Amino acid sequence: MCAVHNTQLLSGQPVAQQILQSVQQEVVALPGRPPSVVFLRVGEDGASVSYVQQKSKKAAEVGIHSNVRVFPETISEASLLQEIARLNDDPSVDGILLQAPLPKPLSFTNLTNTIRPEKDVDGFCAVHCGRLWQEGDALVPCTPAGIVELLKYYRIQTAGEQVVIVNRSSIVGKPLGALLLQHSEFGNATVTFCHSHTTSLSSITQQADILVLACGKPHAFGKNFVKKGAVVIDVGITRVAANNERGYVLQGDADAEDLMGHAAALTPVPGGVGLLTVAMLMKNTLRAYHLCHNR
Ligand code: GUN
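^ thats the input. predicted complex w/ guanine below
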């Protein structure tokens, strides 16, 4: 097994910057109105408030028009469906994003499936999901698409590698698995999914050449879970109470300190995958603009 002396930190910053710069250049050159996206947020979940703010801010920076609509936790599914139907028919709107998680009993799947595929900038609806698994032309969910961009940027090969993903959600785990299985340069991996019912988790994660962590267990994955020389992609981002101005710090699932000198490379939290989620959303919004204009 190879000796690891230095663990490379895979910053999301230069990757996101490259993507955002190219989106901005394309947006500036568009004729007529800029691309526009509407963010739908239900309730006041702190993390969701912050994510939607970041998305809105980044949109403004690249010249995309955005609008945030906030609804009370008590809103009915029927009222949200009505709002989505209205936005689907509004020619001044290219993209619609419903921020997850939703309060119970609202069904995120039902609601996202009613977003017109051309406007589904998250790529969560059944049409894009199906196209992704068929290796067709899909709008790809932003976090998995961002992870692939990160692997490309740092030239981390996936073909023939054992990839273990500790997540099975439709937002991260499943679409990432679909991408890494594809018959493409940054696909062709052997993919294993782990989840809350997985037994002997560490015996599986220890097999990974590339380990993707997205289970929201702050600093839970140290050396005991990671093969020496593995690449660790940390998608976990949990608010942990702290005695600072904000009252919390953000922590990933990886125990970064423990993995230094053990993992070959690791994405930092914050400053890693999160930046790419937002950058890919801007790229998807620009694609949605083109899809809506070429109807
Ligand atoms: N909640 C956490 N990540 C995401 C995402 O990528 N899109 C949406 N809509 N909600 C999220």
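Residues 45 and 101 are 9 Å apart (CA to CA).
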